[in-house]
Design brief:
- This protein has 200 residues and is an alpha/beta fold.
- The protein is 36% helix and 18% strand.
- The protein is built from 7 helices and 6 strands.
- A 6-stranded mixed β-sheet has the order 3-2-1-4-6-5, sandwiched between helices.
- α1 links the parallel β1 and β2.
- The radius of gyration is 16 Å and the shape is globular.
- The relative contact order is 0.18.
Length: 200
């Protein structure tokens, strides 16, 4: 069996309208050794056709695809922790079920993790969103504002933003993962960011 370098962990909850696009964007990533990559879908009690769609995608994707079912809705923090426990990779890559990766994203991630000094990293939203919905537009504007602010040597902004963020599995385990008290997506990634900064 090939050694897995990177495990993508994707919590889903009623994601039937977005999960196929995400998996296709992963599958269409160039310059990636899919033998060293796995995808773990942790379905958080979906009531729609999310799992049916993911099962259909198993015969299409180029990498190992594991499905983990939660009997009840447990929230994204617990779902991510469950996926991390199943992961074989040296690094964990957390993705939200409604994102789509740009062509070079995965290749860039593999390049980042090839540097053994990197402990954690995060991505940003594309400034040009495919939707006019408020939340993605707001997040994209916020990310780009922070990205430009970071060019100022006196500024400091960081967030392990779980829509796309990676971490060494050994460090994730040392930090005992995300706090599971939050049942909905709220501040678990912010709290986790503070613990990463203290430890890394």
């Amino acid at each position: 069996m090939n050694k897995i370098d990177l495990s993508a962990i994707i919590p889903t909850h009623n994601s039937q309208n977005t999960i196929e696009r995400l998996l296709l964007s992963i599958n269409n990533s160039p310059s990636v050794n899919f033998n060293k990559f796995e995808v773990i879908i942790v379905d958080d009690g979906s009531k729609d056709d999310t799992i049916k769609i993911v099962r259909k995608m198993r015969s299409i994707v180029n990498c190992q695809l594991l499905i983990v079912n939660c009997k009840n809705h447990v929230g994204p923090a617990q779902a991510r922790n469950l996926g991390a426990r199943k992961a074989q990779g040296k690094y964990l890559l957390f993705l939200d079920g409604d994102v789509e990766l740009k062509k070079q994203t995965l290749a860039n991630v593999f390049k980042i993790i090839s540097n053994n000094k990197v402990k954690a990293f995060t991505g940003i939203w594309d400034y040009h969103q495919k939707t006019a919905n408020f939340f993605p537009q707001f997040k994209a504007l916020r990310d780009w504002s922070y990205w430009f602010t970071e060019r100022d040597k006196n500024s400091h902004y960081y967030l392990f933003s779980t829509r796309i963020a990676g971490i060494e599995k050994k460090l994730f385990q040392k930090l005992h993962g995300f706090i599971e008290d939050y049942k909905e997506p709220t501040v678990e990634d912010i709290e986790f960011t503070y613990r990463i900064e203290k430890e890394a």
